[in-house]
Structure to design on (272 residues):
């Protein structure tokens, strides 16, 4: 039943339909002109539908703009923030005891693009800088990923500025001395030649089970048959999951140099 709320400080349970007293001293004002529905205001613990733009403007730089404090035990399926289009969820931000997530929901966009994340840039006229993605590894070290001016994707331990060529191009291997702990000289040439022979015998024709590269057929080393040329090892893949291109190239350089020396010696021995 609707109530007139006269003592606002004492009222702890206002609901839509209750009325607040106002003063309207204009000529001809009636009782209905001197009241306003509480539903016109934000009500604590009551669901609201705001149909106009709301602005949160903290009065001090030391104040937070908006806090959504989800209770312990909240499931990620009950997001702290959900953005809808015509009543259908499109974006949600969820927190739970075992996850933090931002989800760009799937949607039917016919033959056009899917959901995406766009990161802008520092567009200063004299010292522009690329936008970047910051990730933190398990050791709490910061990692930054960004596209440089040449279109290469780079990763580094510091964020890019107007000089955007720091770090390493993703997919390559850092090869400078300052990035390595030198363990010693390479293996003797005889061992290298034996390893190269084993690598050659480990070459197979194959396609990727994932369907990558549109099922294109390759001819290359299967590291299970030549463990020296495998990398990224774990318990399930003692020979490695990836091809160790660094060792392959190093061995081939040594093998070619050794064979060149042998050819030179043979030519010298048989020269007239």
């Amino acid at each position: 039943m609707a109530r007139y709320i006269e003592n606002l400080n004492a009222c702890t349970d206002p609901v839509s339909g209750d009325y607040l007293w106002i003063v309207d001293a204009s000529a001809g004002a009636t009782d209905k002109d001197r009241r306003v529905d509480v539903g016109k205001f934000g009500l604590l613990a009551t669901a609201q539908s705001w149909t106009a733009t709301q602005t949160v403007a903290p009065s001090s730089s030391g104040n937070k703009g908006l806090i959504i404090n989800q209770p312990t035990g909240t499931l990620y399926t009950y997001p702290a923030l959900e953005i809808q289009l015509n009543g259908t969820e499109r974006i949600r931000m969820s927190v739970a005891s075992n996850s933090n997530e931002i989800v760009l929901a799937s949607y039917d966009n016919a033959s056009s693009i899917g959901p995406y994340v766009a990161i802008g840039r520092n567009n200063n006229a004299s010292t522009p800088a690329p936008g970047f993605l910051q990730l933190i590894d398990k050791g709490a070290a910061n990692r930054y990923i960004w596209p440089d001016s040449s279109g290469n994707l780079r990763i580094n331990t510091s964020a890019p500025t107007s000089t955007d060529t720091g770090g390493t191009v993703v997919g390559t291997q850092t090869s400078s001395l300052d990035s390595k702990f030198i363990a010693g000289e390479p293996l003797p040439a005889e061992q290298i030649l034996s390893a190269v022979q084993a690598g050659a015998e480990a070459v197979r024709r194959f396609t990727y089970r994932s369907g990558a590269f549109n099922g294109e057929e390759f001819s290359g080393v299967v590291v299970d048959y030549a463990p020296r040329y495998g990398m990224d090892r774990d318990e399930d893949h003692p020979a490695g999951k990836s091809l160790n291109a660094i060792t392959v190239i190093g061995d081939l350089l040594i093998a070619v140099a050794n064979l060149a020396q042998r050819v030179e010696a043979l030519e010298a021995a048989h020269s007239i």
